[in-house]
Each structure stands twice: as C-alpha cells, then as structure tokens.
Amino acid sequence: MRAAFYQGAKTFTTGEAPVPVPQADEALLRVRRVGICGTDLHIYQGHLDHRVPTGGVIGHEAFGEVVAAPAAGGFGPGDRVVVEPLWFCGRCRACAMGASYLCYALKIRGVELPGGMQEYWAVPAARLLRVPDALADDQAAMIEPLAVATHDVRRARVKRGDRVLVFGGGPIGALIALVARHHGAEVAVAEVNPFRLGLLETFGLTTVGPDIDVQRFVADWTGGEGVDVAFEVTGNAAAARAVTDVVRVWGTVSIVAIHAEPLPFNLYQLFAREVHVHGSRLYAREDWEEAIALAAAGAVPLAPLVSRRIPLEQLQRGMEDALAGGPFMKVLVEL
Ligand SMILES: [Zn+2]
Ligand SMILES: [Zn+2]
Fold this sequence. Notes:
The protein is built from 11 helices and 17 strands. It starts with a strand and ends with a strand. Helices cover about 30% and strands about 25% of the residues. It has helices spanning about 40-45, 95, 135-140, 145-155, 170-180, 195-200, 215-220, 235-245, 265-275, 285-295, 315-325; strands at about 1-5, 10-15, 25-35, 60-70, 80-85, 85, 105-110, 120-125, 130, 165, 185-190, 205-210, 225-230, 245-255, 275-280, 305-310, 330-335. By secondary structure, the protein is an alpha/beta fold. Helix 6 (about 195-200) links the parallel strand 11 and strand 12 (about 205-210). The radius of gyration is 20 Å and the shape is globular. The chain folds into 2 domains: about 1-140 and about 300-335, Quinone Oxidoreductase, Chain A, domain 1, CATH 3.90.180.10; about 150-280, 3-Layer(aba) Sandwich (Rossmann fold), CATH 3.40.50. The mean pLDDT is about 95. The structure holds zinc ion (2 copies). One zinc ion binds near residues 37, 39, 60, 61 and 145.
C-alpha cells in the first residue's frame, strides 16, 4: 500500500509499506480522506520533532471504511467511520477525572502514533464512530475539526444571546463561529486572509478584516462593555496580546491555538475585569457525538469549507501551499 512518511522538517516522501495487521481489539480501515490541519503544519516545519518519529505517518483527521473489525466491536466491513485519534492510559489522574483526552501519557494517532496518511490503517474499534449516510466523504472528513469546535464552544459555555469574537477564521475558527452561532450567539470573526473573509461572509458571519481595529470594533459592537467570550485561534502574538482587552467583566477567554513560545499577555485586564481564561484542546467523546449530530442535521455547513483535494503524493506541496496562506480553507488528502 501507499503511505506518506515524515522524514524530518520540510520533507515528506510517499512510498510503499506493508498493510498493517490489526491487533485483536483493532479494526482495519481503508482510508478515504485525511484533512491537513494546523498541527500538521507545525509537524511539517519541524516544531514537533520531539513527538513525531522520523519515518512516521501523520494525519489525525481521517475518514474511512471498515475492511475488517473485531466481532464484538459493533462495526463490520463497509461501515463508514471517523477515528477519535487518541491513546490514553485509563488510570492516571486526568483519565480518572474524565479528561482522558488530556491523559498524562496521551499519544495522538498522527503525531506520536501512526496516523491516517496511508491507504490502510489499523485502529482500536473502541475509537471509531459511525458516519451517517447523509454525509458525503468530504463532510465526514470535517467531523474531527468540528469536534474540536464543539469542544471549544462547550468549554467556553457559550449561551444564547452571547456576543462572541473569534480571532482567526481558518477551519477551526470558522467552525467555532458556526457552532457558537448555532447555539444562539452573535458572532464576529477577525481574520486577515481575504479568501477566508469572503467565505465567512457567505455564511452570514460578521467579519473584522485587517484594516479594522479590533478593539474599536468591539467597543462599537458592545457599547463599550466587551464581548462575553473571545477565542484565540490564530497562534499569532498580536491576537494573544489583544484577546484579553476585548472581553467584558467576568467574561471568558479561550486559548485554542498552539502557542509554541511564551509571549506577552495582558494580565492586567484579567485582574481588572476578573476575566476567566482557559485552554481548550482536542475533544471528549461527547464532543464527537455532538459534532456528528450537528453535521447530520446540516446545522453547520461543512462542504463549503473544503477548498481542495490533493493526492497523497502531493502532501509536501499541499503543506507549502497551506503555509503560504493562499486562497483556501480546508485541504483534504484523497486516498
Ligand atoms: Zn487537527
Ligand atoms: Zn491517563
């Protein structure tokens, strides 16, 4: 079978590998689509070399079909599935608290463990979720990032009538905005990429472009009070510096982006307005279930977020294009 291998910073190769042999608790999947994510761009640039093995197979946003599955697992050949790409110990403090997605020994398939950028993939049947027939393959491949968004919106306790500002209108920021709006919030998204701004506007979302001062926008929008919830989804220092300045008294700041380096953050506003700040990472099982329900109900538009499909052999090129910030939202690898 074909697979793409990470060979160190800025280098993917495509080659042949044996079809994985599933263990007793594992299903064998025929992979159909794998999304390229911001995390994958960090991997591509070598930022996660302490976690990703040389020769490793990345890809944690996968959709596929079951080829074979353990009899007791509830899945059989032909089932369309997505994969919760997490390995957790089940015994540590985080796992015992119900936060197994933050297990102290957490391993992610597509980071530390083999991911979906290969034609066949062996994964535990317990980590599979069924995809409703109503969802096309491209939409199914968007369930993983949608589960990130449902998790982020749930953790930030977004309520009907809230004003929500999302810094960053890439796939995750867009999905957070759409889920928050579905929950009854008024949403605005700050973004710099003109293609993404245009796409967000086709969904009827309010956008804050690069030539608009975010703080002034929020002051006008909220009568000087500040938004109820602000999400930081850019990974950008300017957004991290601004995010605490736009939130109301007792409001909430959610840090979703990966900030690999410490950077200036305005703690005075946290003090002055008693702002709540939390991180938001990955997802729990219930977030996947909500994501699948929202997708199946058509509550969140997924198909328009898929800008391109590329073959596995073009993974390297796809990474370069994504880093260049071109006219696309989500790029999927089609196997
Ligand atoms: Zn991802
Ligand atoms: Zn654990």
